[in-house]
Amino acid sequence: MKKKLLWIALALMMVVALGACNKKSDTDMAKESAEGFMTAISELKVEDAQKYVLEKDKDVLKDDEFMKEMDKPENKFFIDILKSAKFEFKSGEIKDGAEEGKLVYAITAKDMMSIISQSMDDILAGKSEEEIMAGIDVSKMAEKTKDVEIEVKKEGDAWKVADPETIMMEMAGIGDMAGLMDEGLGEDTSEANMGNENMSEEE
After folding, report:
1. Residues 50, 179, 100, CA angle at the centre, nearest 5°?
2. Phi/psi of residue 57, each to 5°?
3. Boundaries of every domain in the chain
4. What does the pLDDT look like over 150-159, one tens digit per residue?
5. Rounded (10°) angle between helices 73-84 and 164-171
6. Which of 7, 30, 87, 183 is the most buried (most CB within 10 A)?
7. How many CB atoms within 10 Å of residue 170?
8. CATH number of the domain at 25-172, please?
9. Rounded to an integer, what distance in angstroms lies between the CA atom of residue 22 and that of residue 5?
10. Residue 85: how many CB atoms within 10 A of its CB?
11. Where is 104: in which H helix or E strand?
12. What is the pLDDT of residue 14?
């Protein structure tokens, strides 16, 4: 009888242990969401990508005109760039009970600056933007790898990507350009404010 009870106890302990092993951590679930989103974007599977973003951000991925006109040279150019993007988890851990967190991924994307050297002849020849885009060989573009901080938030029982636009821009190789544009706008705004202050002082 004692042996039978012992075997039952051991069996119960194994069931509990297996259950604990199979349970995914918040970090694992957040990583699955981030990687699922990036994979879907690189494969241009918009509906799949929407599963990994917050409810309020789903409209960001609805670009029907773009999807309808994928055969246009300028659209094919960005499609090829997104398809060539790669990512690798670097660091980050979600604390137990947290509702948000950050994961760092190394994203390898085409270097948009290499377009200039590749298409300089077409630019000097005065070709249209569509012609220039059509003449660019994405496979010959240089690549660069950048550590990108990805924000994730918990929505219900699932972890979602909180800033899909930033990730898409990094995968398209225009993340740095967006940053420069923001800085430029910030400087312009500051100068404008200084001008307003000077006018106020003169008055």
Report:
1. 45
2. -100, 0
3. 25-172
4. 999 999 999 9
5. 100
6. 30
7. 22
8. 3.10.450
9. 26
10. 21
11. strand 100-110
12. 56
